[in-house]
Amino acid sequence: MMRKTTASFVFICASAFTMALVNVAQAALPVQSWTAPSGARVLFVEARSIPMIDLNIDFDAGSRYDPAAKSGLALMTQGLLALGATVGAETLTEQQIADRFADAGAQRGGSADLDRAGVSVRTLSSKPERGAVFDLLAGMLSAPAFSEAVLTREKARRIAAIKEEETKPEVIADRAFDRALYGEHPYGRNQTAPTIEAITRGDLQAFYAANYTARRAVVAIIGDLSRAEAEEIAQRLTAALPAGSAAPEMPPVPAQRASELRIAHPATQSHILIGSAVLKRGDPDYFPLVVGNYILGGGGFVSRLMDQVREKRGLAYSVYSYFTPFKQEGPYQAGLQTKKEQANEALALVRKVIDDYVANGPSARELRAAKDNLVGGFALRIDSNRKILDNLAAIGFYGLPLDYLDTWSANVEKVSVDAIRKAMKRHLKPENFATVIVGAP
Fold this sequence. Notes:
There is one protein chain. This protein has 441 residues and is of the alpha+beta class. The chain is built from 16 helices and 13 strands. The protein is globular and about 65 Å long.
C-alpha cells in the first residue's frame, strides 16, 4: 500500500524553535479557513515566532484513481510536477527549478498516498524570497512539462526499484495483505514493472487534467504572514488551475472475509500480518479505537501484544497494531516478525490476545495509563510548524473540525472502557481477519 512520504526541511535555530513549541502547546491554535475565489479550500494559522512560511497543497489525486493496468500513475504524475514546468514566460528544466528553490533558500517536498497527492514548501517569509518561491510553485502546479525523456528515465528508475522491492519479505507481505483486504478495489492495487512500463505521457496529462483542479485542492499554510497575505498566496497558486468537478464515486470496499495466505521465502524469519479494512476518516469511533489500540498494540512496551508476545514468551523482538483511516475503510493491521519454527505459535498467541481484547476490552487501570501517555505526549504531535502543517492538511482534506487539535486531548479523556469495548466489537471481527505469512514454516 502506498504510504505518504514527506521531505525534511531546513533547520531552525533552537531557541526560536523552543519558544514556538511552548507557545503552541499552551495556546489554542487559531485555525482560519475559507474558500479561495478559485474554489480551493484554504486553512491558515498565523505564527510569527520565526520568519518562515510552511505551505502544503494537496489534491484529491491519490492512487485510488489509478487505472488497474497502470498502477503507479498517480505517484508518477506527482513526481514529475517538479521535473520541468513553464514558469511565467520561461520553460524550466528540473535542474533550473531545483536551483531556483535553492537560490531562494527554500525547501520543496512532495507526497502521494491512496487518497491524495501534492507538494509542500518551506520558505523565508520576506517578500522577495517567498515571491520567487510561490511563482515557481504556481508554475509547477499549473504548467508541468511532463517531458517524454524525463518520463522514460523515471519509469526505468521506478521499475528497477520495484524489482528490488519484490525480493524483500516485508514488501511481499504488505502487497499480499493489501490484496487480501481489498481484492479488486483500488486500495488493493500495487505498482508492478508492467503497470509502470504501460504509463505514457498522455496518461500523465489526462490524469493531471482530471485531478489537479482547484475545487479538489486543499491549501494549508502556517507562518509569518497575515490573513490577507495568505489569501493572496493561495489564490496565486490555484488561479490558473481549471475549476474542475466533484471527484467520482469509488466502489465500496468489499466485505471482509477470513483468509490465510502462506508464501514461501528463504528469509530466516516469518513476516506475519493480520487484520481487516475497517476505519474511515471522521468515524465517530475514532478516539475510542485510537485509545483502545494504544492499549492493545499501539503503545509499544506498555501494550498487551508486546507484553504477551515479547516480554512473557520471547516470540518476537517487536509486535504492533494500528489503524490507518482513509476516505474509505482503511486497514487495521497487526504484525510481527518471528523465527520460522515459532511462526504458528506466535500467530496463535496474537490472535488470542486480540480475540480476548475485542471480547472484554481494557481494564480501568490500562485505560488511565493510556490516557496519561497519549495526553502527556500530545505536545510532540504539534511541536513544529511542519507537524502542525501536516495536521492542517489532513483536517482540510478530510473535512475534520477546525478545532480538532484543540479538542484532541479532551476527546481522549472522554473515552471510557465501555466505549472502547463497543467500538472494538463494532469494527473488529477477528473471525473475518485476513492473515498473510511470508516465510511460512
